[in-house]
Design a protein that fits this description.
Blueprint (H helix, E strand, L loop, with lengths): L21 E4 L5 E6 L5 E8 L13 H8 L10 H9 L3 E7 L2 E9 L3 H13 L5 H20 L1 H13 L14 H5 L3 H11 L6 E6 L5 H9 L22 E5 L5 E10 L7 H12 L5 H9 L6 E7 L4 E10 L3 H12 L8 H13 L1 H4 L3 H13 L6 H9 L4 H11 L6 E6 L1 H10 L4 E4 L1
Parallel strand pairs: 2-6, 7-11, 7-12
Antiparallel strand pairs: 1-2, 3-5, 3-6, 4-5, 8-10, 8-11, 9-10
Helix pairs in contact: 1-4, 1-7, 3-8, 9-12, 9-15, 9-16, 10-11
Length: 445
């Protein structure tokens, strides 16, 4: 048998696009979204409840987190351990969390058992038991979690940076799950009251991704369609504003290294500079050979790794360099970092733009190759009030970024005299050197 000498034509790859979900609204105000992904036989389901953390009473901040963690401890239809056993019977896993912009429940289940799983998901938001003993248990667990978190220097620096950048009157300036004082004050009746008022279908969104059968909307409507909440519970989302720049030194006596955050209040995805900022932060601190890591790690050996992280919120955001440094090199590392963040004399290059855009767009098919990745991305956008079409629009915007526009965005947002610094380390060794470098140090325990 003779083989043809004609080789198949190799064509350029088609432009990848984030899937556009099918949408439906129930009469109770709940939105349904479905993304069919052939071959994904484990469905990823997210239920996003529009309940921002600023809905929590100030004296019991953390009640949203404790409420969410109690939901799967039993329902009226499947009390106590019976609920967990029912999830296990159908191969489902249920998790979630409370965030600044809303509450999310995440469910993974084989697609052929989705019809069994959705009613169980509906039960946890409609009829959770919220037993007093479970509230007390989760309160104790959260208090232990807070203690552990504050003992970790990197996490303490992240918490401090948020508080130093965002005005104190805004809920976004404080820990998601509340602090030790507010959590300790959460009582079982507070959890019941929070659930009764803020778990509601109007404004909620159910997202389902996977190899779908076409019955999902009917199944979701059957599980959630008669869900109502007669109480008035809608709370407007706060729009946080930045604090004036400051320098906080959080004492860790005897620490041989310091965790550092250096940056400022930033922008959200709705800002026209968003794509430019993505490119600029990648060039400075988003890749292994980005400027900050190349100088502070590779050339100076001051750190195991330095990153510039751009963290959007529903409104505004945080832009911050993060890294851990030997105590004795912190002043010099900060001097170098401050200079690297100042692009006025060393702008972003065409090569850096190309690398950032290629990486961001080129890695998208991998990031969103699973049903979990797609649902998780859509849920994040829904929580922050962003249309799903943003993903593809942002890819297009990235291709229009120039070295000049990327440079200008970072120059505007990270001005050298407008940076906030948070250092967690040995105050006895760091205070005077930081003051000598011109930092207006405020000591914190």
């Amino acid at each position: 048998m003779r083989h043809s000498d004609h080789r198949p034509e190799v064509r350029p790859p088609q432009r990848w696009r984030f899937p556009d979900p099918t949408r439906l609204w129930l009469d109770n105000g709940m939105q349904l979204m479905a993304c069919h992904r052939e071959g994904q036989h484990v469905a990823a389901v997210a239920l996003v409840v529009d309940a921002p953390l600023n809905a929590e009473p100030v004296d019991i901040e953390g009640v949203a987190t404790i409420t969410q963690r109690c939901l799967d401890e039993g329902t009226a239809s499947h009390p106590g351990q019976v609920f967990a056993e029912r999830l296990e019977d159908i191969g489902a896993v249920l998790g979630g969390g409370a965030g600044y912009s809303g509450i999310e429940l995440f469910l993974e289940v084989p697609t052929d058992r989705l019809g069994d799983a959705l009613p169980l998901l509906a039960e946890v938001v409609r009829e959770p038991e919220l037993r007093p003993d479970e509230v007390v248990r989760h309160r104790a667990l959260r208090l232990a979690e807070i203690e552990h978190t504050l003992a970790n220097s990197a996490q303490r620096a992240a918490i401090g940076f948020r508080a130093a950048c965002i005005g104190q009157r805004y809920r976004a300036s404080r820990m998601v799950g509340g602090d030790a004082t507010s959590v300790a004050a959460v009582a079982p009746e507070d959890v019941v009251a929070y659930h009764a008022r803020h778990y509601r279908p109007d404004g909620a969104t159910l997202i389902v991704s996977g190899d779908l059968s076409g019955r999902e909307f009917a199944q979701a409507a059957e599980a959630f369609g008669d869900w109502t909440n007669p109480l008035e519970g809608y709370v407007s989302h706060q729009v946080p504003e930045p604090r004036t720049p400051r320098c906080w030194l959080i004492d860790r006596p005897g620490a041989v290294q310091a965790d550092v955050r250096l940056g400022a209040f930033g922008i959200d995805r709705g800002d026209p500079r968003w794509a430019d900022l993505q490119v600029a932060t990648h060039a400075l601190g988003g890749a292994f050979l980005s400027r900050l890591n190349r100088v502070l790690r590779e050339e100076k050996g001051y750190s195991y790794g330095v990153h510039l992280v751009n963290s959007p919120m529903r409104d505004g955001g945080l832009i911050g360099m993060q890294g851990s440094f030997r105590t004795d090199v912190v002043p010099d590392a900060l001097r170098l970092a401050r200079g690297l963040l100042d692009l006025t004399g060393d702008p972003i290059t065409p090569t850096e733009v190309t690398d950032a855009v290629t990486y961001t767009i080129g890695s998208a098919p991998l990031r969103y190759s699973t049903a979990h990745g797609i649902t998780d991305r859509i849920a994040a956008l829904v929580r922050d009030g962003v249309n799903v079409e943003f993903v593809n629009a942002n890819f297009q915007a990235l291709t229009l970024v120039t070295p000049e526009s990327a440079t200008q965005a970072l120059v505007e947002l990270l001005q050298p005299d407008g940076l906030t610094l948070v250092v967690v380390g040995d105050a006895a060794a760091l205070h005077d050197p930081l003051v000598a470098e011109g930092w207006p140090v405020e000591l914190h325990a």
